[in-house]
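Retro notes, item 3 of 5
We never archived the inputs for the L6N33NVT complex last cycle. Fixing that now. Sequence and ligand:
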Amino acid sequence: MTDAPDAPTGGAGAPARGMSRRALLGLGTGLTAGIAAGAAAGFGVGRGTAPTPAATSAIGASTYPFTGPHQAGIVTPAQDRLYLAAFDLTTDSREELVDLLRRWTTMAARLTQGLSAGPFGPASGPYDAPPDDTGEAADLPPAGLTITFGFGRSLFVGTPSPDGTPGTDRFGLADRLPGGLVELPHFPQDALDPARSDGDLVVQACADDPQVAVHAVRNLSRAAFGTATIRWTQLGYGRTSSTSTAQKTPRNLFGFKDGTANVKAEESAALDEHIWVPASDAAADTTDSAWLTGGSYLVARRIRMTIETWDRTSLREQEAVVGRTKGEGAPLSGGTEHTEPDLTATGGDGAPLVAVDSHVRLAHPTTNDGVRMLRRGYNFTDGNDSLGRLDAGLFFLAFVRDPRTHYVPMQTTLSRDDALMEYLQHTGSGLFAVPAGVPDGSLVLGDDGTPTTSDDSPFVGQALFA
Ligand SMILES: C=CC1=C(C)c2cc3[nH]c(cc4nc(cc5[nH]c(cc1n2)c(C)c5CCC(=O)O)C(CCC(=O)O)=C4C)c(C)c3C=C
Ligand SMILES: [Fe+2]
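Structure as it came back at the time:
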């Protein structure tokens, strides 16, 4: 198993470039050798052909492999844009759920390699039927698109009613509920909107072009017609984390560098300890959750930031609240951006240089039993309220091995004691189990080298249904 960051075939961190998917499709179904090589790099080819991860495709498009031990979109260098959609199933049929996951897998494998959603594309196929791709990404390169799927608690045990009546096990999955897929507690100061929370399924689409990410979710949603509907979505821009040491630390809407102390893709031991679910975690569960081995959990929190109040706050106060300098992002205990904060250092007045209620102190591993998380959040701006205040903030996304140890305790501390909370309001929430990746070489490819869907096609999360 390699824990190196997913490398795009166009070069890590490189802007999307090269041939658009329309040009790619224009080459017809008889793919050229170069494109077949690109597809092989991405899908992992069935029929015994060895996958060639991270090969540069002849078309020069930036793509990340869809298959692999873990799903793409976790340690993949965080792209610039996000479109995340949570879905609710409208069927009680396990077969229809499995069929949806098969079709989503095939479509995601195509889309992430810069192909159209279906084999015909937006402008061909039967003239009297809707095209099998909506078309708005036809002239755009793949833009490093990754698509990551997850399962919400309600998929396993339904949704309890407000009077406490337990939910329904619609798909015969209750005995597969992984222990970490808990109902998150109400944290102090939570102001969650149910219409922006939870969901049976989640799709995280990340790309360096928002239209490519939106196109992916739109086509997946279209494929779900009659089986699942969108419950809520979130658009994000300006990643608020680095997930690879090759990436420059970006800034959040408070103007601070965000993602400095993140777990990075190159830290394979930390990924195994804090991000990927090990087989031993399933063994400790009362349910049969071995299917999640090699996967992770995704925590999503829509956090509104009171920008206007923050912008009237002194630089001294802003830095004290965060615990780092605004310019360099260095800890207030001294050094440069990547210097480890010294939480014991005190100033001339004897007070800690990194304040006791500062965000960095309270989120630091030493304050949290050594736990770390892989943050992968985005800024959002969703218009304004009736007082003219921006509805803007940070869409916090983090991948963790177990939310019970790696998220709930830290969020409890932050919600109660973090000075930053004066400027924050959590307005949406979701927790999802993210299965391991579709194995390299397992997707069945059609004659044109693209994945096909049949009754025995492999699909994301397949082990859950075994
Ligand atoms: C429960 C986990 C976290 C939430 C929620 C959260 C929200 C949040 N954070 C910032 C800004 C910054 N966070 C920084 C560091 C940091 N934050 C968390 C966790 C949560 N943040 C962790 C684990 C860490 C790393 C701590 C460490 O190891 O030192 C920083 C500093 C730069 C960095 O290391 O990334 C900033 C700035 C905002 C604005 C926010 C909610 C809107
Ligand atoms: Fe933070």
